[in-house]
Amino acid sequence: MQGHTYLASDRASGSDSNQQSFLGLTAVIRSAPMRQLMHTVEKIAKSNAAVLIIGETGSGKELVARALHHHSLRCSRPWIDVNCAALPDHLLESELFGHEKGAFSGADSMKQGFFELAHGGTLFLDEIGELDLKMQVKLLRVLDGTPYYRLGGTRKVTSDVRIVAATNVDLREAVDKGTFRRDLYHRLDQARLDVPPLRTRMEDVQALAEYFLAKEAPQLRFSAAAMEAFRAHSWPGNVRELRNTVVKAALVAEGDEIDLCDLPDELCAADAVPHLTGRTLDELEQQAILSALTETGGRQDRAARLLGISQRTLIRKLKIYNGQETSRGVAEAVAR
Question: What domains does the chain contain, in order, with CATH numbers?
């Protein structure tokens, strides 16, 4: 779905113990930072406090906002979302507050604004930092409970909504520059949620990649080398970049496996993945297994799920590596 950011289910393990659905989006959180974030979401969801969600583009801010509504006391009431950056300035006021018939050229009938449509529920204002100063003043008055008029209207409207806003810009810096009102910033920042970028929660990368691949081409799987490249990449475009990368790779892959040659240049270039250069496939597979064991503290069951293989296969490979007298780390892992 365009504009939506997903967190992935664990296809390899088949486990849905952590799976949740937020207004149609499925999320299974694997990494500790995202688990902690969702714990915080549940804690603050029951209040009516405005929430400001901070995070890079594509990191999952909308999903967090939907989770807030899902866990709130307003969950049975409307959820309305609007991208403030996507609407022209001359239309934004009409979209937010509505208009009466004949209020302007083309206004052939009365239209309720997003505030009215979200009455009793949650209004999600994405890209809030893109609002111009004039609209910020009007928004602040409504957030403070002041009744407002539809454009061209003579009857005041009062709406009860819980505001959740999101931005990928530093609003404190915008306040200092004079491009964002300080009073509006503090009104929105009654509670704050920081969504970590994908590069700081690499444990989620395989789960996300597996999820997108299952949607795009369920007959395919990732090679160990390809998954190592995924882990080595910094993902400046976050989950959105990861999704697009999987789609591209699935389109060009031959056989039943996505390998390094199927990935974009920025993922398989020597300077991007230096530890892959000049190594055989067996060596890359061994490195992937060792990395998974390190990440899971030596837990073979968790490492197998992370790699997308059975625990029996993992144990067999570890015994092979140990018989070849490879690294000390493999020998220690066999003993666990």
Answer: 31-196 (3.40.50.300), 279-336 (1.10.10)
